[in-house]
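Backbone geometry:

***
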Amino acid sequence: MKMKTFCFAVFVSLISIGRPLQIGAWVAVTTSGLILSVPQEAKADIVVYLKRANRKSSMGDFKGAIVDFTKAINMNPKNSGLLSLAYEGRALNKLSLNGISDKKGICFDLRQASSLGSQSATSTFYELCDN
């Protein structure tokens, strides 16, 4: 399978580079550029799910967004950049949907995103979760 390098802007379909995306009452995700190597076929499918999840989230369909983030996670467990985005997005949508009632699930997702290099997930993890 041929690998292509591409630049993927986080949450491109929703926000401009450098501007925060407000999810829920107080959770904000900022944009950043990532350079990733992904098989072309897998990249297209994962990006579709990530964009669709972001669109659903922006319309308040947090359950639908969680489903799409989960599909992205299940499709590409080896790509740390996209996987981190999916885990963090799923955690933030769980938080927006039910508040902190699913703390275990939220903290699991934030821990995963943090371990994959997401600094914003690390900050949110330390803010919400018991170490």
In short: DSSP finds five helices and four strands in the chain. The chain has one domain: 3-128. The domain at 3-128 is CATH 1.25.40 (Serine Threonine Protein Phosphatase 5, Tetratricopeptide repeat).
